[in-house]
Amino acid sequence: MRIATLLTVPLLAVLIGPPTTMSAQARISISFGTRLGPEIGVFAYSSERMGDWHKNYRQWAPVTLYDINGHYYRSNVRGARAVLVYTYHDEYFLPPQDREWNGADKRYNYGRQPTPVDYGRVRPYAPVAVDARLGGEIGVLAYSSERAGDWRNNFRRWTPVTLYEINGRYYPRNGAGARPVAMYRYRDEYFLPPKDQAWVGHDKRFDYKNRPNEQDHGRVRERP
What we know:
By secondary structure, this protein is α+β, with helices and mostly antiparallel strands. It has helices at residues 47-50, 53-56, 116-121, 145-148, 151-154, 214-219; strands spanning 14-19, 26-30, 42-43, 61-68, 71-73, 81-88, 91-93, 140-141, 159-166, 169-171, 179-186, 189-191. The strands form three sheets. A five-stranded mixed beta sheet has the order 3-7-6-4-5, with no helix packed on it.
């Protein structure tokens, strides 16, 4: 799975919130526009896809991601938890759970290895054939007034963009069978517009004929 990166602007405040019952990690309150970068999709290790780890792990590159409220990003912010994963052919995945793997890869920082919480939340590997000309997959989030602010006061800060949906995934370039979906971009984040009926027709820059449908709103993830 390929991931796209983009954009800029100053870092806003990041505050630590009270602990949640979901995990021992404190929940992090993130101001809209904080430079998280796009969310990274992380999969479970699959020997069918990555090969037997005993023979193939040297082809994988260890890389540190940061767990922010159950989502993984390349950028670190205060309160985030470092998690060392592997990347191979633009796909990110957790290491094997085989006990023999512990200590086998001398490049790997085992002090940052995933916890049972990580293994419990990542998706099983699901191969998807995608035309490389579409570009890297872009993570799209739902609009959140808590994170983005009231749309009436903030929408002019957002840039309308069109991504292209194939098999429930979004890409920057058009291709055969792709469906255009208009949405917003702000710094490194792509998100669907508000579902408020008052928003319809309000932003004269927005391509309303390609606005997201209920399937789009139902599949995207909430902001961290």
